[in-house]
Amino acid sequence: MKTNPIPDHVPPGLVRDFSLFTSPGMAPTLNGDPHAAVACAHDGPPIFYSPDNTRDGRGTWVITRARDQRRVLRDTGTFSSHRSIFASALGEHWPVIPLELDPPAHGVFRALLEPLFSSKRVVALEPTIRDRAGALIDGIATEKTSCDVMKDFAVPFTVSVFLSFLGLSQRRSEVFVGWVSDLLHGNADKRTAAARSIVAFIDEVAARRRKAPAVDFMTFVVQAEIEGRSLTEEEVRGIGVLFLVAGLDTVAAAIGFDLAYLARNPKDQELLRNEPDRVALAAEELLRAYSTVQMIRVATKDVEFEGVPIRKGDYVSCATMIANRDPSEIECPNTIDLARQDNHHTAFGYGPHLCLGAHLARREIAIGLSEWLARIPAFRIKEGTAPITNGGHVFGIKDFVLTWD
Question: Hey, which CATH number is domain 12-404, 1.10.630.10, 3.40.140.10, 3.90.180.10, 3.30.559.70?
């Protein structure tokens, strides 16, 4: 196995064999618990260097304490978001927007897009979200006494909601799911092919909306102006790509991990079934315990951070699943307490780049859980099956089969 060289400025005592992709419990594993596995990150130095903690095998500084992650995420002058990850897979250099922009450009685009994701707009979407969840679950409940949760519910549900939000046709939902799956979890060839397909699709929709506007997200983007000018083709592409990709896999994974927890903990399942008003609060605790996203920043200059010599160009990992298991801030962090109050988790990030779609994601998760509990009787993982869980930039779960009487 190829071992990445350790940069000269990294003290040997701060090097640790840890990876969100390949460490025990985080590579694809039957019945695994990658979130419990990351808790071991708190057993050593609060900041350490992992030689292999990105999809391309690049080393990163791993920030374990929640308070240190917050410092990194709000200091955009020292720790940049600009990496052009998506475009670089195609040999190009445009950013996904606003995720890979730093202030002040980030603020300009965020101000443009923020009204589309306001709590008021999400509340207006709730009947549609609830209808889509109910229709999918009713279809399952009337025909089956078991299902593959990700294939039959979590993924179709989140895809349906987000395609409606973007004003895109539901007819190609399975194609979109395949693209995003290949992009986030496939090998290098699949990721590149998926990236090309997504870019071509976004460019096609943008061109169509320039000629024939509609009342939808892409029309808003192609007609938008910033600082007195229209958006460039690359800016439209960067926005479209981000919101197609970001809205699918992460929310579906969260619902999958949540239902897996409830399947294994029938008392909590019964509690939420009998007291549905508790679901929103419980969803926050499950977001904390089963966060799915690792955020990477790039140092823009040499800096001593908590005594650690981070140098310009170094990658810095702020993994939400590590911060949200921080024992210095969270009492009994590995215990799931569905009544936990004041849950200041960072599942949606922190600072200027706090997830734009957080309101929408929260409602999707809470509605998806409440509609499932209202329509499906006591459920459990089907005997003889085992879900496969994985770590990575986005944690995931698949082959997850539930059954009920």
Answer: 1.10.630.10
